What we know:
The complex is a heterotrimer of chains A (340), B (325) and C (296).
Chain A: H1 2-7, E1 8-20, E2 25-37, E3 41-45, H2 52-59, E4 68-77, E5 80-81, H3 87-93, E6 98-101, H4 105-108, H5 115-126, H6 132-145, H7 162-174, E7 180-184, H8 192-209, E8 212-217, H9 220-226, E9 229-234, E10 237-243, H10 244-249, H11 255-263, E11 311-314, E12 317-320
Parallel strand pairs in A: 3-8, 3-9, 6-7, 7-8
Antiparallel strand pairs in A: 1-2, 1-4, 4-5, 9-10, 10-12, 11-12
Helix pairs in contact in A: 5-6, 5-7, 7-8
Chain B: E1 11-21, E2 27-38, E3 43-47, H1 54-61, E4 69-74, E5 77-78, H2 84-90, E6 94-97, H3 111-121, H4 128-141, H5 158-170, E7 176-180, H6 188-205, E8 208-213, H7 216-222, E9 225-230, E10 233-239, H8 240-245, H9 250-258, E11 308-312, E12 315-318, H10 320-323
Parallel strand pairs in B: 3-8, 3-9, 6-7, 7-8
Antiparallel strand pairs in B: 1-2, 1-4, 4-5, 9-10, 10-12, 11-12
Chain C: H1 20-27, H2 31-48, H3 50-53, H4 56-60, H5 86-122, H6 124-138, H7 142-153, H8 157-183, H9 187-194, H10 199-235, H11 247-254, H12 263-290
Amino acid sequence: xxxxxxxxxxxxxxxxxxxxxxxxxxxxxxxxxxxxxxxxxxxxxxxxxxxxxxxxxxxxxxxxxxxxxxxxxxxxxxxxxxxxxxxxxxxxxxxxxxxxxxxxxxxxxxxxxxxxxxxxxxxxxxxxxxxxxxxxxxxxxxxxxxxxxxxxxxxxxxxxxxxxxxxxxxxxxxxxxxxxxxxxxxxxxxxxxxxxxxxxxxxxxxxxxxxxxxxxxxxxxxxxxxxxxxxxxxxxxxxxxxxxxxxxxxxxxxxxxxxxxxxxxxxxxxxxxxxxxxxxxxxxxxxxxxxxxxxxxxxxxxxxxxxxxxxxxxxxxxxxxxxxxxxxxxxxxxxxxxxx
Amino acid sequence: xxxxxxxxxxxxxxxxxxxxxxxxxxxxxxxxxxxxxxxxxxxxxxxxxxxxxxxxxxxxxxxxxxxxxxxxxxxxxxxxxxxxxxxxxxxxxxxxxxxxxxxxxxxxxxxxxxxxxxxxxxxxxxxxxxxxxxxxxxxxxxxxxxxxxxxxxxxxxxxxxxxxxxxxxxxxxxxxxxxxxxxxxxxxxxxxxxxxxxxxxxxxxxxxxxxxxxxxxxxxxxxxxxxxxxxxxxxxxxxxxxxxxxxxxxxxxxxxxxxxxxxxxxxxxxxxxxxxxxxxxxxxxxxxxxxxxxxxxxxxxxxxxxxxxxxxxxxxxxxxxxxxx
Amino acid sequence: xxxxxxxxxxxxxxxxxxxxxxxxxxxxxxxxxxxxxxxxxxxxxxxxxxxxxxxxxxxxxxxxxxxxxxxxxxxxxxxxxxxxxxxxxxxxxxxxxxxxxxxxxxxxxxxxxxxxxxxxxxxxxxxxxxxxxxxxxxxxxxxxxxxxxxxxxxxxxxxxxxxxxxxxxxxxxxxxxxxxxxxxxxxxxxxxxxxxxxxxxxxxxxxxxxxxxxxxxxxxxxxxxxxxxxxxxxxxxxxxxxxxxxxxxxxxxxxxxxxxxxxxxxxxxxxxxxxxxxxxxxxxxxxxxxxxxxxx
Lengths: 340, 325, 296
C-alpha cells in the first residue's frame, strides 16, 4: 500500500454516502473506488443522478450536514485519510490543497464583492502572513493567468460575461496553487465557443502548475480532449475505469458505456434514428439487487440480478460486469443502516 | 429550401425584427432582419449561441412577443398585426415546446389536466371526459404511461416532463411547432429518446418544425435545413448536409471546430479558438457583427452589413470575405 | 411508429389525488401546530355550541344582586359590574368577535389578493395606479381610519366588517403582487398564452393557485391580528353596541374593577391570547406544511 500512496494524489476506497430525510434514504454513492494519479486528470463521467457531485462534495467533506452521511469508506489525499480529519483541519485543506469549481458561475461568485476582493479573500485565508501588497500582486497574477486584465479586479461579477465569470472562479480555485482541482461540470453552462476557451485555459494551467484534476462531466467530448484517465459512474458506483485509450479505443466495454457512446448524435454520420439506452437510471431510494444497470441492459443474464458483479481487470482497464468477470463482488448493493 | 412541389411556404418571415427598448432609450437588437421560409413537413434548424436571438425569433414568430417590424406570413396570411383575439384560432396551428421541463408546466396541475388545457380553452370537445380521453390518447402517442395521468409534474423526471409539454403542444393538431431547445436540459440518453420521439411524431403527423438549439450535433440529425444566427442576424443558411460538409462563414467554421469531439486521436489538436467575447446587441453599428472576433476580417467588413448571397444552390452566406460584398 | 413500450391501461378516473393528505402529514409533524390546532378546535367548538352551553340571555341579563361575584359553580367566571354572567358573556362575545374577525380576514384576503394579482400581472399603468393608491391609503393610520368609518356609518356588524376589511387588505396586495410578478415569468404562463388563453383565465387558473400557499399562510397569521384589532376596537368603544358582548369590550369594562374583581380582566385576556396564539401556531405549521422547502 505504501508505494501507491506516493503515486496517487487521491484514492477513494469503497465509499458509501447516503442522504437521509424523514421520508426516505437516498443511496447516492454505493461502494465507490477511484484513483487519481499525481499530475493526472481523471474524467468522471455519468449522467444526472449518478452521484458525481456527491462524490466531489464528499472529498471536501462538504455534504449537507443534516441529510448527508458518509457511511463508510476511505478517502486518501496524498496518503492521509481525509475522513478522519477534523473540520478545523479540513479548512486548511479546502481552497488550499484541494479546490473546487462548480457548474454555475452565476451563483459561485458573491454579487456584492468585487472580483479582486474575492480572490484576495481566498489568498489571505490560506496565507495569513502575507502583506497587503503581496496579496494584491497575487491577485493580479491570478487574473493574468486566466486572461483577464488585472485592472478589472475592481469590477463586480455582474460586469463580466458568463465565460469570464467562470474564468474568475477558476482563478480563485487556482490562486493558492492546489494539488488537486475538482471541476464539477465547469463548462456546461457556457456557450460552445466560450467552452473551448475555458477548456484550453484549464489545460494550459494544469500543465503549467502540474495540478491533478478531477473533471466531472457528462460530455464524452470534453473527456476525450482533456482527460488522461476515465471513470464511468452509474447509480453510485464506478462501472468502468481505465486510461482514456482504454475507454475510447479499447475493444471491451461495459454495456452502459457502449450505450452512452451510442446515444451521442454523431457529428460525422447522419442517421435516421439515434440509439438511446431504454429506460431510466434506477430510483436511488430503491436500488435493484444485483447489478444496478441490469434492468436496462440488453445483455442481462440471470446472475446479473442476484449480486453485484466483481471487477474484471485487464491492465489499467477495469470493468464491473458479468460479461467479463465471473465472480460476484464483495459488497452488495444496499445500505446497512446499522453501520451509521 | 427543398420544397417538394410546395409553392407556398407554411411559414415565412420577411425582414422580421424584434427590438427591445432598454431603460435609458437604447435598443437591444434581438432579432434584426430575418428572412426565412419553412415548408410543411420540414424542419428548419436554427443554431447559435446565447444572445444570438434564436429564442426571441421563435417567440416572435408565434406572436408571443410583438414584432417590431417586418412580416410574418402563415399559410400565406400576414399575421404580423393580428390582435390577441384574431390570433386565437391561428394558435391551433402553431405551437411551441419549451426548453426547461421544470418551469414549462404548472406544478399544481396533474398531467392529464396540463395536456387537456388547450383543448378546454378552444372547447374542442363536448364533454370533460371526452377531452380527458383525447389527452390520454396523446399520452400514448408520446410514450407516457397512462398511469401517470393523475400524477403531479414533480413526481416525474425531466424527460417525462418534457413529453408532457410535447403532448400538450400536439393537442390542437398544429401544423407547425417551434421547438425551443427541447432536449438541452436533458441527459444524453434521455435526449436521444426524446429526439427520436420528435422525429417519429413529425413523420406520422406531417408537422413542420423550427428547431432552435445551440447543439450542432443534435440539429444535424433532425433538420432538413439549418440557419446559423449571430447577434440577431442570419450569417449562413444551407441544407443540413451541405452546412456540415462545406461551412463557409467564419463563425460557422469556428462553431464546428469548437465542439469537443469524443475522439482522443484528435486530442492534441488545439481548439481553433475565436478570440474575444460576443459584442453587445445594444445599439449596433453597421457592418458585420462578427468582424471584431473574426480572424479574416478586413476594414470593409465593419463598414456596411454584408449581403446575404447564394454562393451555391440553396447555400446562402453573409460574409464580405466569402462574397466580396 | 416505433413507440416506447407503454402500458395502455385505461384511466379509470381523471381525479387528481388530493394533496391534502400529504399536507396534513407534514402539518402534524410540528408539535406546535398540532397544539394550536387542538386548542383552536376546542375554542371553536365551544363558541359554536355556545347556545347549548349557556343561553344568550345569561349574557345580557342584569342582576344587581349578583354584582362582581367571584367565580363559583353558578357563575364559572364570576359576574361583571351589571351582574351579568361573565362565562356566558365570554362565550357569546367570542362568537361575535371571532366571526367578525374570520369574515373580515376572508374578505380582506380576497380583496387584497385580487388587487395584488391584477397589479402584478398587468404591470404598467395599472400597477402604478394601484400601488400609488395603496400608498395613499396606507398613509392614514389604521385606527383613525376605522374610527372615521365607524363614526360615519355607525357601529353594526356589516360596517365593522367593512372597516376591518379596509384596514387589512393592504397586507395582501404587496405580498400577492410580488408572488405574481415572479409567477408571471414562468414558462407555463407563456405556454398558456401560446395555447390561446386569455389573461383572466391565466390569473385564475395558473397564477392564483400557485400563489395560494402564501395567501393561506398570511391569512392564518392575519386572523390573530384581526382578532386583536377587533378587540382593540371594541375596547375603544367602536365595536358592536351594548349589550352585545365582545372580548375587547369586556376588557374595557373590567378596567375599573381591576382591583376588586381581577377575574373580570383575566378571562377575556386569556381568551384573546390563547385564541390568537393557537392560530399563530397553526399558521406556522401550515406554512411549513405547504412548502417543505422552506425548512432547511
